[in-house]
Specification:
Blueprint: H1 4-11, E1 15-19, E2 22-23, H2 25-31, H3 35-44, E3 53-58, E4 64-68
Antiparallel strand pairs: 1-2, 1-3, 3-4
Main location: membrane
Subcellular location: Cell membrane
Protein name: DUF421 domain-containing protein
């Protein structure tokens, strides 16, 4: 298959929504999730702070997977 976009759709690759506690606005828009929906799913995962999220992915099945920072792990701004 020559089309990268078509290949991504057909293979169902995860889409990164959060990196180091910061929302990837472009990917969030493409995923058709609102900030409120993302934060609601974060709360359902047991936390309220994006700062604690190392990465978050929208999976091909529609679920959001959160990879949390380890204790003491932080961004350069802390």
């Amino acid at each position: 298959m020559r089309s990268h976009k078509a290949a991504v759709v057909l293979t169902g690759r995860p889409v990164e929504l959060v990196s180091d506690g910061r929302i990837n606005e472009a990917n969030l828009r493409k995923s058709l999730l609102s900030h409120d929906e993302l934060l609601s799913r974060l709360r359902a995962n047991g936390t309220e702070s994006l700062r604690k999220v190392r990465r978050a992915y929208l999976e091909p099945d529609g679920k959001v997977t959160f990879l949390m920072k380890e204790e003491g792990e932080g961004s350069a701004l802390q």
